[in-house]
Amino acid sequence: MNEIQGRPGWNLKIYKEYYIKAYNAIKEACSECKVSPSSFVGPNRDYLAFLKENGLKFDFLSYHSYVDYLEIDELMRILRELEFGDVEVWITESQFGGMEGRLDRSECEVAEAMVKSYVYALARGAAKVSPSELEAKDHSQKG
């Protein structure tokens, strides 16, 4: 899945036209600004192939994952297979339980999964990592 899906009237063809214009406008206004195409959830080979096949320029990829270890090995394998080279991967959204219901893990277990997953992702080639949120919600355990 990518952030384009689920938006009424949008598809990858429309997104390509929009993105090229947005990328060029941003770079014209600020050549040093870093630009990323739409974020995507999980190692989405089809979306990454779309970026590659259409020659869309970008400075980094914004990646979301909600499982332990963030599926980083599979993502990096796909990037190698598609010959992306040294692309920066920013994990801009991640969680380790509690998105739709009460956590099956304690606060300590969530913290442990987060630290292990982030360290692993950075060691495997991710450039940056970030949680979705650090605030407990009503449906989560306090902490």
Protein topology:
Blueprint: H1 12-29, E1 40-41, H2 45-53, E2 60-65, H3 72-81, E3 88-94, H4 107-123, E4 128-129
Parallel strand pairs: 1-2, 2-3, 3-4
Description:
- This protein is an alpha/beta fold and 143 residues long.
- It has one domain (12-129).
- Helix content is 38%, strand content 12%.
- The protein has four helices and four strands.
- Helix 2 links the parallel strand 1 and strand 2 (60-65).
- The longest helix has 18 residues, at 12-29.
- The model has no long low-confidence stretch (mean pLDDT 89).
Keywords:
alpha/beta; 143 residues; 38% helix; 4 helices; four-stranded parallel sheet; single chain
Protein structure class = alpha/beta
Q: How many distinct helices? A: 4
Number of domains: 1
Strands ordered across the widest β-sheet: 1-2-3-4
Q: Helix content range of the residues, please?
A: 25-40%
Gyration radius, in Å: 17 Å
Q: Which residue ranges are poorly predicted, with pLDDT under 50 across at least 5 consecutive positions? A: none
Mean pLDDT: 89
Care to give the gist of this entry?
With 143 residues, the chain is α/β, with parallel strands linked by helices.
